[in-house]
Automatic annotation (TrEMBL):
Belongs to the EamA transporter family. This is S-adenosylmethionine/S-adenosylhomocysteine transporter. It is a multi-pass membrane protein. The chain crosses the membrane at residues 12-33, 39-63, 75-94, 100-122, 129-148, 160-180, 189-210, 222-242, 254-272, 278-298. It is found in: Membrane. InterPro entries: AA-Vitamin_Transporters, EamA_dom, EmrE-like. Keywords: Membrane, Transmembrane, Transmembrane helix. Pfam families: EamA (PF00892). GO terms for cellular component: membrane. Residues 13-146, 162-292 form the EamA domain. Its main location: membrane. SUPFAM superfamilies: Multidrug resistance efflux transporter EmrE.
Length: 305
């Protein structure tokens, strides 16, 4: 896309929704892992989501590229791999050797990785000192929220490779966001569906190679997997595409600062986990970072009434 990003009230609402949905997903994943292994969990999520989205896409006549002369299937395959399959695999493998805190910080780093990529590859996404400082401020807030465990060592012999895997997953998410924005005119539902289908074709054989045949899940586990496929995978993936295509990858990356906040708050409300003493300071830094980095968009939003 060549037009500059358009950040509206709808954009803010979609990003806020994604923060809540993905922030609550960690709780549901913990429940799912009681009855299924990590790779097959990822495969099941993407498979459920791709089946659901394919049914919706079929009802729309399988619309995809709005301009047949600008079809770019090689790019779609690359984006499909980078959007879900490859980062899911990297995180599933890497988290065996690193702390959950480091994995969380790696995902927050997506916003910092997007900044230079978008500056050079996306029209209208210029890198400014205010934007850089705002994103750095938000990142510090996330690190403070997660706490000292973010940089603790597990002592695992493969820890360094696990950390590279987590950072590699962050790079995948960042690059896929930029590439989605650069696609020619395309139907968002068709795009979201194609990306999930490509991801499923990659993750399913990877799960079989890594963990053998799929375990036989209980009815409860199947229900949880269906919920994971429906809400944080299918619906959230569609919202992600809509935000990137309209407001741009830099704005979309703000979600990575909101997810840890909701994860901590929901963990305290639902699982009675203790709130970190630094919560208010961390929240203040994150909100200040978001406000500073998006000052222009917020100013236009309030001016519009």
């Amino acid at each position: 896309m060549t037009q500059p990003p358009e950040i509206t009230r709808k954009s803010w609402l979609m990003v806020a929704t994604l923060g809540i949905v993905w922030g609550s997903t960690f709780l549901v994943i913990e429940m799912a892992l009681e009855g299924i292994t990590p790779f097959w969990l990822a495969a099941a999520r993407i498979s459920f989501a791709s089946i659901l989205m394919t049914a919706i896409w079929a009802s729309r006549g399988f619309a995809l590229f709005t301009d047949r002369t600008s079809q770019n299937w090689p790019n779609l395959i690359i984006i499909g791999a980078l959007s879900s399959a490859v980062p899911f695999i990297l995180l599933s493998w890497g988290q065996q050797f690193v702390t959950s805190g480091f994995a969380g910080v790696s995902m927050a780093a997506v916003a910092l990785i997007v900044l230079p990529l978008a500056h050079f590859l996306v029209p209208g996404e210029h890198l400014t000192l205010r934007k850089v400082f705002g994103f750095l401020l938000g990142f510090v807030g996330v690190v403070l929220l997660i706490g000292g465990q973010a940089f603790e060592s597990t002592g695992a012999s493969m820890e360094i490779f696990g950390r590279f895997a987590c950072l590699g997953a962050a790079c995948c998410y960042a690059l896929s966001s930029v590439l989605v924005r650069r696609l020619p005119p395309i139907d968002p539902i068709g795009l979201a569906t194609i990306l999930l289908i490509i991801g499923a074709f990659i993750v399913l054989p990877a799960a079989w190679i890594a963990e053998g045949p799929p375990p036989i899940p209980t009815g409860r586990t199947l229900l949880i997997l269906a919920i994971l496929g429906l809400v944080p995978t299918a619906a959230a993936n569609l919202l992600r595409v809509l935000v990137i295509r309209s407001a741009g990858p830099t704005f979309m990356s703000l979600t990575n600062y909101l997810v840890p906040v909701w994860s901590v708050l929901l963990g305290a409300l639902i699982l009675n986990e203790p709130l970190p003493p630094s919560l208010l300071l961390a929240l203040g830094l994150i909100l200040a970072g978001v406000g500073l980095s998006q000052y222009g968009a917020l100013k236009r939003l309030f001016a519009a009434g």
